[in-house]
Amino acid sequence: MSRDILEAMTALAREKGISPEKLMAALEDALLSAYKKLPGAARYARVEVDPETGDFVVIRYRIPKDLEAELIGETIAEESYIDPETGDKVEPQDPEIDPAKFEQYRDRIEEIDDTPDDFGRIAAQTAKQVILQRIREAERDMMFEEFQDRVGELITGIVQQSDSRYTLVQLRDRVEALLPKSEQVDGERYDHGQRVKAVIKEVSPSTKGPSIIVSRRDGELIKKLFELEVPEIADGLVEIANVAREPGYRSKIAVISHADGVDPVGACVGPRGSRVRMVVSELRGEKIDIIPYNDEPARFVAKALSPARVREVLVDDESKQATVIVPDDQLSLAIGREGQNARLAARLTGWRIDIKSETDFAATATASEEYEEETGGRCQAVSVRGRRCPNEALPGSPFCGLPKHQALSRFTTAAVAILEPLSDEEITDLADPDKTWDDVVDIVTRAEELYGDQEEVVVDEDAEPEEGEFDDDLAPAAEVPAEGADEVVAELVEEEPSENGLEPAPEASEPDGAVDADPETQAGEPAS
After folding, report:
1. How confident is the model at residue 366 (pLDDT cuts 50, 70, 90)?
2. Which one-letter DSSP state was computed for residue 415?
3. Residue 137 near residue 206 (C-beta atoms within 8 A)
4. What is the largest CA-CA distance in the chain?
5. Interatomic CA distance for residues 174 and 147, integer angstroms
6. What digits encode the pLDDT tens for the residues 311-334?
7. Pairing of strands 321-326, 352-357
8. Does this model's pTM top 0.70?
9. Segments of 258-381 assigned E as strands
10. Which one of 53-62, 376-385, 408-417 scores highest in mean pLDDT?
11. Which H or E run contains 82?
């Protein structure tokens, strides 16, 4: 082999950006493939090329039969696999021993120089194909290594082809990316030759080169576009904390400043709105709201609902839910078209947002106060004998926390008698707030039909429940504070006589601070 081939290989490595070592290894593999095309060629051999002179040597291996059988057995064991369809073990038909294993048995293998004088036309053609294939593989590997670390990066490409499935975008010479339909923005057109910006979403290897997926819908696109237009973001003085986006329609970004004296909103807007206008232009007219980030949830939620004016925000830290009160004329603006503004604000802040007008909020508060005044906060459940439950009702509910009484919220009546025909499992389903109306409608209908012929129960508000009447359902009684003991004694003394006609027992002499609040309590035992 002449020195001209080595010079050509060096120039090719420089042009393709491939290391000379990879090209030399490809040349050796090509010469070995050409050697095996010759008549009488050995099955196992290697080729060595002198990088200085370009001379090559073909060395064939003469392997003992027992060693060859051992190495073939190892190869079969390594390359065998289980067919997932049949479950049978599949072995390779013509196993080829890995040349690297020969290095371990150099002392048992005889090496013979078998360099041919001429390869011939067919062998030379084979060598050429092997070299070209190795060059393509090296280019694919280099391209994959280049782009696998660029996920999330902003790229600019030229549209080459567009159809119903995807759009082909050329990034540079012989490098193309796919813009699938799922990553395209509704309403956008991608014409041939048009320049388009996108972010790299995914890079994966394939037989035809790395598969590069780009996106125009990802929220990272807005971050990268602002970083391109706003020097303060590129320098780290201003940061985009979060992005909420409905591609093609509207986006909200929360920005925060890490430097004193730098207005994050003003930096993103730019002089006369020039910076944000460039981003909006690249996004084909998509509206962008720039919100200053705030550590206080109430202020952040109020700002996130911009451009609507917020009157008051009530937050629940445990459930991360915020109730926002807005003026009546701002309700539709706060909710947005088809709830878009409220939906984006919830995504941006991470809080559940309930928006109410001042009129609705005032009416709700008044109704709640009237209900508390009407019911006195006492459970509305009525026993079979017509007695009210003595337990306190849960907040926002007319019934206490007992499952049987909570089940009454499914009916128009508060009489416990309507539940008599039902099983415990059905009552549990009725009391479960996670069960929808469709889940319990059959139970409610059947219970109302059975109860329909009965007379309506008359409620005696002033009567106390008889002994044992609510024993199965009675909720734990509230503790009596020590400072309220005197009032409790006074109330017990002023009670009317019981139904059996007996007068109340005379007040026993108790030590200071000890009160017997239960007539059946043993003498001298203070109430808890």
Report:
1. low
2. B
3. no
4. 132
5. 14
6. 889 888 888 899 999 999 999 999
7. parallel
8. no
9. 287-292, 312-316, 321-326, 352-357
10. 408-417
11. strand 81-82
